[in-house]
Amino acid sequence: MKFTAAQIAGILEGEVDGDSDIEVSKLSKIEEGSEGSLTFLANPKYTPYIYTTQASITIVDKAFTAENPISTTLIRVEDAYKSFSKLLEYYNQVKLNKTGIEQPVFIAETAKYGENVYLGAFCYLGENVKIGDNVKIYPNVYIGDNVSIADNVIVFAGAKLYSETVIGKNSVIHSGVIVGADGFGFTPNEKGEYTKVPQTGNVVIGENVDIGAGTTIDRATLGSTVIKNGVKLDNQIQIAHNVEIGENTVIAAQTGIAGSTKIGKNCIFGGQVGIAGHITIGNNVRVQAQSGIGRNVKDNETLQGSPALNYGDYNKSYVHFKNLPKIIERFNTFEKNIKDE
Question: Does an H or E element contain 3, and which?
Fold first, then answer.
């Protein structure tokens, strides 16, 4: 796809400073720009590159003033970073704007789908599936019986949505995601053998949710595992049965959340955080990477460590952790001197 500077300026409500007919067909970093590419300048640290970049078009703030000659055509906007992000979103919409039903696919007779949908090759739609308008289902996706998918959802290749799953509008499910597999429920008998506890619930995913590649969300034992509106999940996260995650919470990769834990809204979790089951985490909680949470957490706490401590207490304690050998040596010397007296 090719776009002229004039077309891009129209999308961004910007002004062209240079050749309005010049075309681009790819994106680049400003320091790696080449002919036919589009880039942007937002961080002042990269300003020197605008005088050497070979990119055909560069998006800049309206306030930018060139101190040396430049060869790139400028598109001046109010905020270069936001405008470039807007353009990336527009580019993705154009690139992903597929429609129609490829072959072969399997669609159960009782399945229903809306207008302007895309069903990639080798998709499977089970009994009583309901798919809204403008939904895009990429190849090799499995959608089990009674799944409901609202408008404008994208499910990328190879994802698996088990039966009774509910997906809210404008959500994105990336490749390799598994939603609705059985929760990890087993009970021991008198012989020490484990018997599976049937997992009869489902998963309910809200609106505007992003779920990264390889993430797994287990169905509830009873009721629902719930991911509320606006939640953003990174790649390779494990969410166990009956977990509830509140609105607009963000969780980084390789985090694991054990069963029946409730997490509030507007929380941020770093990578590789481990969260025990049957606890409650409040709203606006911040957890640093690789922390372990084994207790209830109040609103607005910031935690670090394993087991996690208050962030400030952890940093104060760390000063002593790293000096512990010296402290022990001093203590032993003091103890020896006491005995010698």
Answer: strand 3-4
Tell me what the pLDDT averaged over the chain comes to.
94
Right CATH for 3-95 from 3.30.750.200, 3.30.160.340, 3.40.1390.10, 3.30.1360.10: 3.40.1390.10
Residue pair 191/212 in contact by the 8 Å Cβ criterion: no
- The whole-number average pLDDT for the span 31-52 is 95
CATH 3.40.190.10: does it fit domain 100-314? Answer: no
Cα–Cα distances (Å) from 124 to 101, 106, 215, in that order, read 12, 5, 20
Q: Which two tokens stand for residue 44?
A: 């002042």
Residue where the block lists tokens 């512990």: 324
71: which 2 tokens?
């060869």
341: pLDDT strictly greater than 70 = no
Q: How far is CA 140 from the centre of its chain?
A: 22
- Burial of residue 243 (number of CB atoms within 10 Å: 0-12, 13-18, 19+): buried
Say if residues 286 and 302 touch (Cβ distance below 8 Å).
yes
* Predicted local distance difference test score (pLDDT) of residue 191: 87
Reported as type and span, the H/E element at residue 338 is: helix 324-340
Q: Residue type for 276, please?
A: A
| Residue extents of the structural domains in the chain | 3-95, 100-314
List pLDDT tens digits, range 180-212: 999 999 999 888 899 999 999 999 999 999 999
Q: What's the CA gap between 336 and 326, in Å, rounded?
A: 15
Please list the active-site residues. 241
Coil, strand or helix: which one is 220? coil
pLDDT score of 301 more than 70: yes
Rounded average pLDDT over 260-284 = 97
Token output for 85? 């992000």
Q: How far is CA 122 from the centre of its chain?
A: 26
**Cα Rg of the chain (Å, integer):** 27
Query: pLDDT tens across 61-104, in order?
Result: 999 999 999 999 999 999 999 999 998 888 887 778 889 999 99
| Spatial separation of the C-alpha atoms in residues 137 and 282, rounded to whole Å | 35
User: Which of 144, 94, 96 lies closest to 120 in space, CA to CA?
Assistant: 96
